[in-house]
Design goal:
The complex is a heterodimer. Chain A has no helices and nine strands. In chain A, about 35% of the residues are buried. Chain B is mainly β. The chains are: A mainly beta, B mainly beta.
């Protein structure tokens, strides 16, 4: 499985934007970039995914570099409830496993 | 719509005892996963089912772990006998087979082996 690299931790202030980076220099052409997050004492939850183009949904935006070797998850206005571990994962097409790394622990300050 | 349901939520046992975890996936989801999560680490895949067939069990320690998914719906993960190092959270997830296959996770079963 292609690997991703994320900072161990990041901090943000409430109601400010947060940019969570992810490096994936060995990404293959068929790998989708997925983001999940895990709140304390809960299972991971899906946030967003993309292949080449930038993506937006109600939770976040995903900005993908033109060479696809890096991506950034953007939370437009962080809330205290966004404090979680954020995982950036490369997933091959249908039927393959989802391999988690250690993720980025996001702390949101009031 | 109900999410992925796991039980028990918490389990404390002594080493060498058996333990079983149960998972009910989202209705209609044909793919089911069991993950193990140690404290401070990301989840690690143990086994993946497509319907009732285990298609990826390379990470399952088969000497003491077993899993089944009868009729391609509910699944059970068993450990016998449990060891101290098995203390962890066991997560179940399900998804629809497809190009991107978003995974839906349950809350997990936290196992403590004394």
């Amino acid at each position: 499985d292609a690997k991703t690299t994320q900072p161990n931790s990041m901090e943000s202030n409430e109601e400010e934007p947060v940019h969570l980076p992810c490096n994936h220099s060995t990404i293959s052409g068929t790998d989708y970039i997925h983001w999940y997050r895990q709140l304390p004492s809960q299972g991971p939850e899906y946030v967003i995914h993309g292949l080449t183009s930038n993506v937006n949904n109600r939770m976040a935006s995903l900005a993908i570099a033109e060479d696809r070797k890096s991506s950034t998850l953007i939370l437009h206005r962080a809330t205290l409830r966004d404090a979680a571990v954020y995982y950036c994962i490369l997933k091959e097409t249908s039927g393959s496993r989802l391999t988690f790394g250690e993720g980025t622990q996001l702390t949101v300050n009031p | 719509e109900a999410g992925v349901v796991q039980s028990p939520r918490y389990k404390i046992i002594e080493k060498k005892q058996p333990v079983a975890f149960w998972c009910n996936p989202i209705s209609g989801h044909n793919t089911l996963y069991w993950y193990l999560q140690n404290l401070g680490q990301g989840p690690e895949l143990l086994i993946r089912y497509e319907n009732e067939e285990a298609v990826d069990d390379s990470q399952l320690p088969k000497d003491r772990f077993s899993a089944e998914r009868l009729k391609g719906v509910d699944s059970t993960l068993k450990i016998q006998p449990a060891e101290l190092g098995d203390s962890a959270v066991y997560l179940c997830a399900s998804s629809l087979r497809g190009l991107t296959g978003e995974l839906f996770f349950g809350e997990g079963s936290r196992l403590t082996v004394l």
